[in-house]
Write a structure and sequence with these properties.
Chain lengths: 353, 353
């Protein structure tokens, strides 16, 4: 049973978190370890729902901040365990987002009297279909646990503030045909061949770039899965292409789907997963005050993040965490040690002065 | 443990065989039942290798005929158990090729003194990659078990004689890319998108028809499988399209591969399975004599069949069996009762007069 010692250095704690494997839907070990490490802290009230933990101070401060991070990772890609090399920590989840989780855990352990009340959220299943998302479940079933004036989602943002986020939608393009023996293929109809125009569309698609509040968002339309085939001798009667559309926050989910229907005209689309984007919201006072306190440049968030969930709850939210998001989900995922320390120090300063 | 009673009517025996499920690589039950039913017949010497059985008379006749059929089927497709409706028997394997196997088993049981010595072969794993094929293994490891002057492969041929067979080759077209988070797809490279030109090629491919010895062969080039994808958030770095080429017997395997390399120029092809075609060989005396004795029209065999294996052993061979091969591997697979009876009667007459 893995244990976490929150008194170690924040970079060591990141490595310790990385070394507790936690692919989506397999977060029991890491959630147990986080729960045990938080439950001994007298200044926090810890709640658990599934493999999602919510720990809060109750100091009666005039403002409450929510600091959130997900515990899960994408599947391993030959990049475990964590490996520290000079100024860089390598490994699955170092960037997305155990560096941010380590910072949040350090803040939770060290700050027993922050100047703002803080609610720390450590949640499950962010990397897979939205229905599994732990933060989403809490927002639906225990919205009072998430009450606050401002939220910081510690997704990797190069230790700078990233505002808004793009939406994401997954659709299945399903073709059907008729099975026959492949030696007499003219008796059947090949479902895989029927995917050809959809793949050609994807291959030549030019994604849009759009400027909102001075930030340039960049969309993407990609196949993330394809499958079909019965056996080596049979003309396949069924094939499925799964497409992921990442759309800028000026499109609603309905508009995003309308665009996909236009792009894939003639195909049936089945939406299997959808989450709206979030507009940057830099005009809101709480967001502007935070940005000024921690300093640094503000950029657009390309990835979908759960800031959209806070937006839907009416809570201003930004992304702010260590790590270059370009390396998320890649074999050479890593985080710079200096960014982990910088985010830790700036948040500590903001919460103590 | 299923048992077979070879004294029942040949159509009932077909149904009994259908009702012993025997998808490729799962032939133990049916091979055991066939072995038990043959081993009680005093006029036969029964040999077994894996799930392949060879039963032979030893009457010292001047001519020996090999009669062969495979015991396996493609995967179930909602078409079990067997169902007799009027003049038609429906179900998986009725056509390909338990009708033929039933005829061969009836001949084996009934003819204790045929005018030609007969070697009956019931073999495993014909419907999958050639490496598993039971007849191929016997031809390599015990070629003396297959000695004969003429071979009849009881693959479905509408109860007519079908000559030669087309070759078959399976290749994998593998594309590679680079993983990245799908929210920043421009950091990666999508292996599934790279399959687009190959699928387009398949979709527009026009298959050749060619006349040989007066018979028109018809080729086919088809995707039989496609897979790719890591998870819903990841640009995939690997995709595989499996293609099956059915080629007329005027092309060698090398020529078939050269054609595929030309058609899929720019892609790497990996051959995973290959079997040569067989020229019709209607000019050979043994083939001509059989055709004359059983009567009926002679047509080309589109499917690959193991007549090619006999051709390689220097034994003239034809396809002759009940069932319309157009319905092989289809959900509505069936055999006409009259064809099962007709093949049974004609072979009985040929072997007894």
């Amino acid at each position: 049973m893995p244990e976490l010692d929150l008194s170690v250095d924040v970079v060591d704690l990141t490595a310790d978190l990385v070394n507790i494997a936690s692919e989506s839907l397999h977060e029991a070990d890491i959630a147990d370890a986080v729960e045990r490490s938080l439950s001994v802290l007298p200044h926090l009230t810890v709640r658990r729902d599934g493999h999602t933990l919510v720990a809060a101070t109750s100091l009666g401060r005039s403002e409450r901040v929510v600091i959130a991070g997900h515990l899960d990772t994408v599947p391993e890609n030959g990049n475990l365990p964590a490996r520290l090399e000079g100024d860089t920590l390598w490994g699955l989840g170092t960037c997305d987002m155990k560096g941010g989780v380590a910072v949040a855990l350090k803040l939770a352990a060290e700050l027993n009297a922050p100047v703002r009340d803080v609610t720390y959220v450590f949640y499950e299943a962010e990397e897979i279909a939205a229905e599994h998302n732990g933060l989403g479940r809490i927002a639906r079933e225990h919205p009072e646990w998430l009450e606050g004036d401002f939220a910081i989602l510690m997704e990797p943002s190069n230790a700078g503030v990233e505002a808004g986020c793009q939406g994401t939608m997954r659709v299945e393009i399903r073709t059907t045909g008729e099975r026959s023996h492949s030696a007499r293929s003219w008796m059947g109809s090949n479902a895989i061949h029927k995917l050809a125009p959809a793949l050609a569309t994807l291959d030549r698609y030019v994604a849009r770039e759009v400027e909102i509040d001075g930030l340039v968002y960049r969309e993407g339309l990609n196949a993330v899965g394809v499958r079909g085939g019965v056996s080596g001798n049979v003309i396949p009667d069924d094939a499925v292409l799964t497409v992921n559309f990442r759309f800028a926050p000026d499109r609603s989910e309905n508009e995003a789907l309308a665009h996909l229907r236009e792009v894939f005209e003639g195909f049936d689309l089945i939406v299997t997963d959808s989450a709206p984007g979030a507009l940057p919201g830099l005009d809101r006072p709480a967001a502007a005050a935070f940005v000024e306190a921690v300093g640094g440049q503000v950029g657009p968030k390309f990835g979908w993040t759960d800031v959209a969930k806070f937006t839907l709850l009416g809570i201003p939210a930004v992304n702010y965490g260590p790590g270059d998001p370009s390396f998320a989900h890649k074999a050479d995922e890593h985080v710079r040690v200096a960014e982990v320390r910088s985010v830790h120090e700036r948040l500590t300063r903001w919460l103590t002065s």
